[in-house]
C-alpha cells in the first residue's frame, strides 16, 4: 500500500519535474559546416573516395574488355577454351564485387576512413555541447540534424548552435 502511494505521489509530481527542465536544440550539421577542419576532412574523403571509385571503374572496364575480347575470339575457341575464358571473367567479376563490398560496403574502408577522420572533430564538438549545456542549465538538448528526428518545429530562441560555434572559437569564421 505504501509503495503504491509513493508511486502515485511520484507520478503526480512527474509533470512538474519535467516542466522545470530546460531544453534546447543544436544543429550539428550547421556546426560542422562552420568548422574549417570539416572542409579539410571532406576534401580528404573526396580524394580517397575518388581514388577508390577510379579503381572500381578500372576493374569494370577490364571485365568489359575481357568480355569483348571473348566475343571477338569466340569463333576461334573450342567450347572448353570458351568456358575457361568465361570462368576467368566470372572470377574477375567476383573480385570486383568483393572489392566494392570491402571498400564501399556497409562497414567498408570508406566508412571506416570517414569515421577515423571525423572522430576527433566530433569529440571536440560534443565536448563544446556538453560545456554549453551545463553552462546554460540544460537538461535536454536535441540534435536537429540527427535522423530520424522527432522535432517538427523549432523556436530559434532555443537554438544553441551558435553558442557551440562560439565555444569552439569559430564565431569569426564564415
From TrEMBL:
**GO BP, one example?**
protein stabilization
Q: Looking at the record's lineage, which domain of life comes first?
A: Bacteria
Pfam name, any one: OmpH
- Recite the UniProt keywords alphabetically: Coiled coil, Signal
- Report the leader peptide range: 1-20
Q: MF terms per GO, please?
A: unfolded protein binding
Q: Name one GO cellular component term.
A: cytosol
Residue ranges the record marks as coiled coil = 42-76
Q: Which family does it belong to?
A: Belongs to the Skp family.
Recorded protein name is: Periplasmic chaperone for outer membrane proteins Skp
Amino acid at each position: 500500500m505504501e509503495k503504491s502511494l509513493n508511486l502515485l505521489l511520484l507520478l503526480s509530481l512527474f509533470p512538474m519535474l519535467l516542466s522545470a527542465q530546460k531544453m534546447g536544440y543544436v544543429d550539428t550539421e550547421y556546426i560542422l559546416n562552420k568548422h574549417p577542419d570539416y572542409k579539410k576532412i571532406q576534401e580528404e574523403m573526396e580524394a580517397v573516395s575518388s581514388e577508390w571509385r577510379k579503381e572500381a571503374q578500372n576493374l569494370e572496364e577490364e571485365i568489359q574488355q575481357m568480355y569483348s575480347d571473348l566475343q571477338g575470339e569466340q569463333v576461334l575457341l573450342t567450347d572448353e577454351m570458351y568456358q575457361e575464358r568465361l570462368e576467368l571473367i566470372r572470377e574477375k567479376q567476383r573480385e570486383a564485387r568483393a572489392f566494392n563490398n570491402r571498400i564501399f560496403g556497409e562497414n567498408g574502408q570508406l566508412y571506416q576512413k570517414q569515421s577515423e577522420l571525423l572522430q576527433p572533430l566530433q569529440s571536440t564538438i560534443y565536448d563544446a555541447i556538453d560545456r554549453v549545456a551545463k553552462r546554460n542549465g540544460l537538461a535536454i538538448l536535441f540534435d536537429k540534424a540527427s535522423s530520424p528526428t522527432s522535432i517538427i518545429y523549432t523556436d530559434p530562441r532555443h537554438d544553441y548552435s551558435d553558442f557551440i560555434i562560439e565555444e569552439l572559437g569559430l564565431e569569426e569564421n564564415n
